[in-house]
Amino acid sequence: MRRSRSDDLEIEPYDPALDPTLRDKDEDDDRPLPDLPPLPADPRWRVAHLPFLTAVAFALLLCAASVGFLVSGPTAGLGAAIGVLIVTISYTMSTLVIAWADTVRPALLMPVALLTYVLKYSVLGVVLAYGVASDWRGKDALGWGIVAGVVVWTGVQAWWIHRVSRPK
Questions:
Q1: What is the pTM of this model?
Q2: Segment 54-68 mean pLDDT
Q3: Based on C-alpha coordinates, what's the Rg of the chain?
């Protein structure tokens, strides 16, 4: 009968005390966790601009729907209104998610914000790709509504930040 090579090998049991990679870690286990910075007393400042921006977005939605209707009929009016609504929902969602992450743990801010933007723009890309391929007559007005929503929302948000951060 033939012997295998494994019969010649003697396997020693694993001893964590002898593992050189774990020796240094055992000494660090007793250290206290670092202190986290205190949360602001009133975290509502992160979303204080949303009511005003929502009112402006609603006014823009009505204007875009009216212009679209007057220029190309009800289909274009609906497309322009949907375009503004897409931007309003998108910006509001980003603001709320970022404000939540900042109140829970400021270290989460960057990964949560990036994940939100990736998901948001992926969905928007799929919707727009489907819309471009369709024969819907309101797709041009939808695009103009998105452009108008982005320009107005960004401008009003920049104005709000400038107004709030201005030294008194």
A1: 0.70
A2: 95
A3: 28
- Tell me the C-alpha distance between 140 and 156, whole Å: 24
| Count of C-beta atoms within a 10 Å radius of residue 147 | 13
Q: Any idea which of 19-23, 143-147, 157-161 has the lowest mean pLDDT?
A: 19-23
Cα(130)–Cα(89) distance, integer angstroms: 19
Token code pair at residue 49 = 């601009």
Q: What is the pLDDT of residues 132-145, one digit of tens each?
A: 788 889 889 998 99
- Cα 80 to Cα 56, 73, 114, 155, distances in angstroms: 15, 11, 28, 19
Domain coordinates of the chain in residue numbers?
48-163
Report residue 140 as tokens.
């041009």
Closest CA to 141 of 83, 56, 86: 83
| Contact yes or no for 85/61 (Cβ under 8 A) | yes
Residues 55, 84: contact at Cβ < 8 Å? no
Pinpoint the alpha helices (H) of 44-108: 50-72, 74-104
Sign for the pseudo-dihedral over CA of 101, 158, 141, 69: positive
Longest dimension (CA), the chain: 96
**Amino acid identity for residue 143 in this structure:** G
